[in-house]
Amino acid sequence: MTSAQVRQEHAGTDAERHVHVAVVGAGLSGIAAAVKLRGAGITDLVVLEKADRVGGTWRDNTYPGCAVDIPSPVYSFSFHPNPDWSRLFASQPELLAYIEDTIERFDLAGVIRLGTELREARWAEERRRWVLDTSAGPFVARHVVFAAGLLHEPKIPDLPGLAGFPGAVFHSARWDHDVELAGRRVAVVGTGCSAVQIVPEIQPVVEHLYVFQRTPAWVVPRLDFRFSPRLRRLLRRHPVTQRLLRGASDLVLRTLALLLRRGSVARLLTPAGKWLLRRQVPDPVLRRQVTPDFTLGCKRLLLSNTYLPALGRRNVTLVPHALAAVEGRELVAADGGRVTADVLVLGSGFELRHPPIADRIRRRDGRLLSEVWSATSPEAYRATTVPGMPNAYLLLGPNIVMYNSLLALAEAQLDYVVDAIRTADARGLEVLEVRAAPFRSFNEEVQRGLSPSVYNNGGCSSFYLDERGRNFVTWPWSLRRLRRELSRFDLENYETVPARGRGRNP
C-alpha cells in the first residue's frame, strides 16, 4: 500500500495527521524501527520524539564516566557497523554521535518529529485506528510501534525529608553539570550500573564521597582497550574484520547467557568472583561489605576495573546500608548511622516495574495498559504484542532482556513487526490482535523456562522481579531461539479483521 493510498483512504479532519505507521520514541530502537520499516518499503511513517534531540538514554545520561557496558561492535546497528569506535566500550558522547550519524546516513530527519510528546494512545474501535494525542496535535495511525525504551524514567526514592535537603539533589540520568563537586561532600545513593561508573570519576575531586549500598553486587573486570588508528584503518578497509570482531563479542555474550540459564551452573562462577574481590579489595572489612551473598549473575553484572579500588581510597566511605531518611544535610542510613553531605546523587535506577509508557496506552476496552499490568504482571506475546491492543507492538517489551546487546534484541523484534505489517498489507487485513490462548501459553512457558535460571534461583531480589516475585524482565532461552521465534509473523495466532469491503479473512 502506497503512502498516497493510505492518506486518501483515511483522510480525516485538517487537525489530524494520518500515517500508516507511527513510531513512539527516537532512541536506538525507534531509529532502528524507522530504518527497517523504510527498508521494507513501508515509507508512510512518522517517529514521534518528546525531546528536542534524538538519542534516548544516550541523550539523557551525561554523568561522568557514562559508557556502554556491552562491547561497541555488538552495541551497534547490524545495518550500520561503525569502524571508528575509539575503544571496545564506547563512551556516551561517541554513542550519541553514532546515533545522529545513523539518522544522517539513512536520511531519517524528515520522518522524525521532535518536541512531540505522546500524551495518550487510544485504539478507536469504530475507526480501526490508533489515535495518538500528542503535544503537537493528534496523529492517526493504522499501526503503532512503541519504542519508549527500558532506561527511560528515573526512579526517585520515596525518602522522608528528601525535599528538604538544602544542597543539590539530582538523579544520575539528569546530571546537573552546573553543580560544582570539587571540594564538596558528595553522597551517591545506589551501587548499580551508573554508580560504578560515576564513583571512580568523581572520587579524585570531591572532599569526601559517601556511597550508600543497600546490597552489594558482583563486579567483574571490564576488558576494555583502545582501538588504535591502525586497527580502525583495518576495520574500515576490510569490513570482514568488523564482522569477525562483532561475532567474537557476540560469542562471549552468548556463552555468558548460556552459563546463567541455570542457577546450578552459575554457582560454579561464584568462586571466580570472590577471587577477583580478593585481588581488588585488600581491606578485609571492606571486602566483606562488598561481597554479595547471592550467586553471581542473579543481579546484573557490573563491569568496572576502577570502582572497587575507588571504594578503598582515603576520601571514600562505603555505607553498607540503604539510605532511609534525610534530615537537613544529614543522611540517615537504615542502621541509624548518619553522614553529612553537600550534594546528593541518586543512582536509584529506572521505573522498570511500572513502565511509564504503559500509563499512556489505552486498550480496546478503555483500560490503561498500566492498570492491566498492575493487576497481573507485565506480559506480552513474544515480548511484542498484547491482547486488547490491535496493531500495536512493544519494542523491548516484557521478558526479552538477556546478556546481550539490546539492539540485537530490538532488531529481532523488528523483523517480526515488519513482517506483521507487510502481511496485513498484502492480505488486506485491517486489524491484527494476538489471541488469548497463545498469549497465555507463551507466558506460562516463559515462567517455566525461567524457574531454574540464576535470575529466579540466585538468592537475590533484583529489578528482574516484580512485587509478586515474578520475573517479567529476562528471556529464559538463547538468542538463537529468540531470533527464530521472531523471524516469521505467525498469523495463525492472531485474530484478524479484513479491510472494509474485502469480505472474509484471507
Topology (SSEs and partners):
Elements: H1 3-9, E1 17-24, H2 28-39, E2 45-48, H3 57-60, H4 92-105, E3 112-113, E4 118-124, E5 129-134, E6 137-146, E7 168-171, E8 185-189, H5 193-202, E9 208-212, E10 219-220, H6 229-237, H7 239-259, H8 263-266, H9 270-280, H10 284-290, E11 302-303, H11 307-311, E12 316-319, E13 323-327, E14 330-333, E15 338-340, E16 343-346, E17 361-362, H12 369-375, E18 392-394, H13 406-427, E19 429-434, H14 436-450, H15 454-457, H16 479-485, E20 494-498
Task: Outline the structure in words.
The chain is of the alpha/beta class and 506 residues long. The protein has two domains: 3-153 and 351-498, FAD/NAD(P)-binding domain (3-Layer(bba) Sandwich), CATH 3.50.50; 162-218 and 261-346, FAD/NAD(P)-binding domain, CATH 3.50.50. Helix content is 31%, strand content 18%. It is built from 16 helices and 20 strands. The protein has helices at residues 3-9, 28-39, 57-60, 92-105, 193-202, 229-237, 239-259, 263-266, 270-280, 284-290, 307-311, 369-375, 406-427, 436-450, 454-457, 479-485; strands at residues 17-24, 45-48, 112-113, 118-124, 129-134, 137-146, 168-171, 185-189, 208-212, 219-220, 302-303, 316-319, 323-327, 330-333, 338-340, 343-346, 361-362, 392-394, 429-434, 494-498. Strands 1, 2, 3, 4, 5, 6, 17 and 18 form an eight-stranded mixed beta sheet that branches. α2 packs parallel to α13 and α6 (229-237) crosses α7 (239-259). The chain is globular and about 75 Å long. The model is unreliable at 1-13 (pLDDT under 50).
